[in-house]
Amino acid sequence: MKTVVKLLALALVLGACTAKKEPVDYVNPYIGNVSHLLVPTFPTVQLPNSMLRVYPERADYTSEYVNGLPVIVTNHRERSAFKLSVTSRGKLAPVIPVTYDNEHITPYGFSVDLEDGAIHADYAVNHQSAVYRLNFREGEPAVLLSSGNGSVALSGNLLTGWQTVSGQTRVYVAMEFQETPSEAGALAHGQITERKSDEGRSACIGLRFKEKEIHLRYGVSFISTEQALKNLRRETDTYDVGIVAAAGRKIWNEKLGRIAVKGGTEEQKTVFYTSYYRTFERPICMSEDGLYWSAFDGKVHEDGGVPFYNDDWIWDTYRAAHPLRVVMDRPVEEAVLASFLRMADQNGTGWAPTFPEVDGDTRRMNSNHTIATFADAIVKGLDLDVQKARDASYGALQHKTLAPWCGNPAGAIDRFFWANGYMPALAEGETETDPNVHPFEKRQPVAVTLGTSYDCWCMARIAEAAGDAVLVSLATKAASFYKNLYNPATGFFHPKDARGNFIEPFDYSFPGGMGAREYYGENNGWVYRWDVQHDIEGLVSLMGGPEAFVRKLDETFATPLGRSKYEFFAKLPDHTGNVGQFSMANEPSLHVPYLYNYAGAAWKTQKRIRQLLDTWFRADLMGVPGDEDGGGMTSFVVWSSVGLYPVTPGKAEYAIGSPLFTEASLHLSNGKTFTVKADGASRDNKYIQGARLNGKEWNRAFLSHEDLMAGGVLELTMGNEPNKAWGK
Questions:
Q1: What pLDDT digit, counting tens, does each position of 608-642 carry?
Q2: The model scores a pTM over 0.85
Q3: Cβ 482 vs Cβ 453: under 8 Å
Q4: Which of 340, 452, 322 shows the shortest CA–CA distance to 380?
């Protein structure tokens, strides 16, 4: 009877079948689980920004088997460290693929039938610990824990182990069982032996039980197995999945409920809250009892009361995810930025990171956009060590190479860049001579030139706050380097060779190299045509004024691919989610639909935002248009759904778009509330007819950060025809 009661209680928690939906009930982790071309959006189970993350051990939702049950995902989008295999069929192995069915996932737990229904598993997660309940409906219960590259050991009912995940970084686990196994030991040739430890690339401990229901709980750590056990003891004193799930549900509701929406459809609320949940997947808090492991120097440090955060693909997240935390989770954002400065101190160079991960800075992508997160924090009044931010940013710009996917010191092409104001391109077939250039990623000269121009503009904001007038002048000059690649004859940013000549012939929609990397980066010239976030007024001028600017924006959304999808996507697989040549699937495009606001055509921004949200973000398995990158893209959905967007991190203002909901209240970090009311908003009523800010008429298509953080109400009157004068 007790088991029945517990099952009913858990069903209420995991199923969340309440009369009135709470924010977490709208989250559908399955959205995007089947990708359009590249990496799917995994159904992550995790508390907000917490170290312990899991998702099913499979390629995507269409997979027939899962590799047992997950233990911990160490880096975003990577597979689980350790393997927890379960079987009732007698045959044992370190990894046992099994069928799955009746799977139900929430942000805080999951339940699933395995092995053709022979086993049912329930799971609930805490910050650094979790619990499993395993119900073996038939056969002989067996549980196995294996390490792919490390060791496992058994002492009584306690299993401990470690696994090297990359280089010097290890992850540790301490797992204890409520039931005592009838047989347990290291696995050899499919048999349980008397040895109580194992080491190697398939180290495995197997346990058999007489009970049909098995309960286990475990803690994880990046410091030691002893710390993993401490983390477990500190967080989880129960084997009851329902209790842990209820606590996790409460945490998620409190976090997601900080943005409360009214109106809209049920699908829009599902997409919105699912997108908001995605923004908490990274970075993760790695502090454990005031200590943290840093791969940047291979040491354990005291955090001094400021948590250490890691695993953040900044090229993706600086655009909208970091600005979202600035207003909604300021203490977390301040700790994240402090963590970036710690990384710079620890990495031996003093350079700001670009792609910090659990195993160190992988220096992926192009440019150094950590500088943008520093600049944005400074202009918006966050607590940041400005002098350290100046030093780390300057070092990343001047002393590290600008070559993509490389962490080496600056070389020949960097000297050329600073002397000539652009990254030189190679002609088709020309041999690469710079050893810093990655053989696959290439130079990406247009992307690097535009991105570094923006970084220099951000550097000037930091230098200004640091009182460095000389650096302000130098960085401001370099912020205009983007103009050196503008081709006035075509209206595009066009690669130049070292002699100053445009590369010819040239196709902006289908440029050279896989992913256009020989000249751009993952996107074509139509997308990079707009990659000047910091000087939109200058871009408008380059293109011949507001009317020409708007016309060229329209061309981007209207021009077809020009070839078959098969051919186009074979070269540009990141360039999905298309509307004409615009790609909703990749982060450099996120600000583009808002650019109409800067040329007096705000109504076209309103039209585009609704078109893009309705077309590409849906509550289904393919409802994410491209690689989501841990909040990099879904933060765009969060901002756009409430009617605002931070077009230029480093500038304290937001563009106004077209809210999905009749009311969205942001309960801000400072304790105040800012509400966007969109009277009459619907699928058809997407156009702003008029606006009032705190009761006063508002005719600007922008809102300042100061106005937002002061709290108040932005009232928008919506209609189904554009008011072309509003915001002009």
A1: 999 999 999 999 999 999 999 889 999 999 999 99
A2: yes
A3: yes
A4: 322
Cα Rg, the chain, nearest whole Å: 26
Residue 5 has a CB neighbour count (10 Å cut-off) of 10
CA 564 to chain CA centroid, nearest Å:
31
> Over the stretch 339-392, which tens digit does the pLDDT of each residue have?
999 999 999 999 999 999 999 999 999 999 999 999 999 999 999 999 999 999
Contact yes or no for 51/284 (Cβ under 8 A): yes
Give the DSSP letter string of 71-140: -EE-STTPPEESEEEEESSS---SS-EEEEEEEEEETTEEEEEETTTTEEEEEEE-SSEEEEEEEE-SS-
Using the predicted structure, report yes or no on whether residue 232 has a pLDDT greater than 90: yes
Largest alpha-carbon pair distance within the chain?
82
Hey, what amino acid is at 82?
A: F
Number of neighbouring beta carbons within 10 Å of residue 77: 18
| Predicted confidence (pLDDT) per residue in 82-128, tens digit | 999 999 998 999 999 999 999 999 999 999 999 999 999 999 999 99
Note the pLDDT tens digit of each residue in 34-77.
Answer: 999 999 999 999 999 999 999 999 999 999 999 999 999 998 88
Averaged pLDDT score across all residues of the chain? 96
CA distance 671 to 329: 11
Which two structure tokens, joined as six digits, stand for 595?
A: 């650019």
Of all residues in the chain, the percent with pLDDT exceeding 90 is 95
- Cβ atoms of 584 and 626 within 8 Å: the answer is yes
Question: Which of 626, 593, 349, 315 has the alpha carbon at shortest distance from 451?
Answer: 315
Q: Which pLDDT score, from 0 to 100, does residue 3 have?
A: 45
Q: What are the structural domains of the chain?
A: 2-256 (2.70.98.10), 259-480+487-719 (1.20.1610.10)
CA distances from 175 to 216, 244, 300 (A): 7, 16, 23
Q: How far apart are CA 424 and CA 444, in angstroms?
A: 9
The residues, ordered by sequence, that sit 6+ positions from 243 with a Cβ below 8 Å of its Cβ are none
Q: How many residues does the chain have?
A: 728
Cis check: omega of the bond before 94, within 30 degrees of 0:
no
H-only helix segments in 298-411 = 314-317, 321-328, 330-346, 370-379, 386-398
Which residues on neighbouring strands pair with residue 97, listed in sequence order?
A: 67
Amino acid 19: pLDDT: 61
Q: Rounded to whole angstroms, how far apart are CA atoms 333 and 211?
A: 47
Q: Which residue has the higher pLDDT, 20 or 719?
A: 719
Of 468, 472, 473, 470, nearest to 387 (Cα)? 468
**Torsion sign across C-alpha atoms 674, 677, 682, 684:** negative
Q: Which of 90, 108, 200 minimizes the C-alpha distance to 144?
A: 90
Amino acid making up residue 188: A
Q: What is the mean pLDDT of residues 311-326?
A: 98
Please name the residue that has the structure tokens 């502090």.
287
Residue 219 falls in which region: left (phi positive, over 0), alpha (psi -120 to 50) or beta: beta
Give how far Cα 153 sits from Cα of 104, 195, 207, Å.
Answer: 32, 9, 12
CA distance 42 to 629: 10
